[in-house]
Amino acid sequence: MPIRAAKRAEAARLKALFEAEGAQAVEAAILLPAETLLDLYGEDIRARAYVTSDALRGEQMLRPDFTVPVVQMHMDHGAEPARYTYAGEVFRRQEDDAARANEYLQVGYEIFDRDNPAAADAEVFALIEGTLKGLPVRAASGDIGILTAAVAGLHTTDRRKEALMRHIWRPKRFRALIERFSGRVEVPPTRQALLAALEPLENLPPAIGLRTRDEIGKRITALHEDAVAAPISKAEVELMEAILSVRQTVPNAVERLRDIAVDMPAISTAVERLADRADAMAVRGVDVDKLEFEASYGRSHMEYYDGFVFGFYAVGRPDLPAVASGGRYDALTRRLGQGDEIPAVGGVVRPGLMLELSEELAKGDGA
Question: What is the mean pLDDT of each run of 10 residues along the chain (367 residues)?
């Protein structure tokens, strides 16, 4: 069977498995409005998406994933609760690694359900894990919700919290902000000079580029407020660092995070969600005693997830991307739902990588 046909056959098999679990099969357009994706991810999305345009529809992007269009479809006219599955190509620009595919098949499973988020998380993870049974893969997991809860609980200004929230998915920038907001590093001299030059605000130019005088004034006011704000305390910074350093099996991670929550109560609810999820996973046969948990997992490549995150990786093949991945994206439903929202979680598998690992396993057995 030709390679492309084999991948499509494997995708069809996986999709049928998900349909057998009660998922409704759906499709998504290959060309998506760029405006929606840019609103969600900012200009960073251009670095990994193919962009095109026409006179009538404006700027569009080749589908970088299925989650956004599936959420949009559900929020427009989906019933509750709902389970969906899909299969098709996604497209990702590759500027640094020519060996990585810029077009590949994904098969997904998504749950929209208000009743029991922990059970839904466990259902998705266990189902994805089941499709990979027999393959040489290891699982990794995390929870973005614990970190966002920690940021929300900091004793600092709302502006600083908003800045940290925006950059949770950019670890280096997040670290730089923590360093500055805690007073560990000084305000850059260039910013100090700018504030001095534009004080009072009457010194503002009428416009800079596309920014109006009013927009510039608001930004300068925000910078002044930040300059006089009290630093984040050493104790809170150390607690944040303690959270980010957690990398253990799930049961041990729960206990460690509970210890941290004694001094940072803001994360308590998120930690108990992790514990509830672990219990629900165990009920579904997941060996949580061996499941890895890393508090920082998913921060550099899973922007729209805001809770549970997971991935499965080929053992001994660090050159390969995740064979499967997923997580919870409640906030995405709020942003696309125009005021409506619903808890949602999902995951995708890559049939092409599954076939590659199966072939390697067969060759190894035959050696």
Answer: 86 97 94 85 79 86 91 88 95 75 92 95 98 96 96 94 90 92 76 57 57 61 69 95 97 98 97 98 97 91 84 93 94 86 95 94 70
pLDDT at site 57: 85
Contact between 199 and 228 under an 8 Å Cβ cutoff? The reply is no
Nearest alpha carbon to residue 304 among 28, 69, 23, 19: 69
| pLDDT given for residue 208 in this prediction | 57
Block residue for tokens 């929870």: 143
Place of tokens 């072939």: 359
Dihedral, CA of residue 176, residue 147, residue 69 and residue 52, to nearest 10 = 10
- Chain position carrying tokens 């923590």: 178
Neighbouring C-beta atoms of residue 24, cutoff 10 Å: 14
**From CA 251, how far away is CA 26, in angstroms rounded?**
37
pTM of this structure:
0.87
- Is there a contact between 66 and 348 (Cβ–Cβ < 8 Å)? yes
Nearest to 344 by CA among 303, 297, 307: 307
CA dist., res. 128 & res. 347, Å (int)? 7
Q: Bridge-partner residues for 112, per DSSP?
A: 82, 344
How far apart are alpha carbons 212 and 260 in whole angstroms? Answer: 45
Per-residue model confidence (pLDDT) at position 221: 64
Helix (H, G, I), strand (E, B) or coil at 114: coil
E runs forming strands in the chain: 24-25, 31-33, 51-54, 58-62, 82-91, 103-112, 137-143, 207-208, 211-212, 247-249, 292-294, 308-314, 324-328, 344-349
- Burial 235-271, CB ≥16 within 10 A → b, else e: ebbebbebbbebbbebbebbebbeebbeebebbbebb
CA pair distance 317, 264, nearest whole angstrom: 38
Residues 350 and 354: their CA atoms lie apart, in Å, by: 6
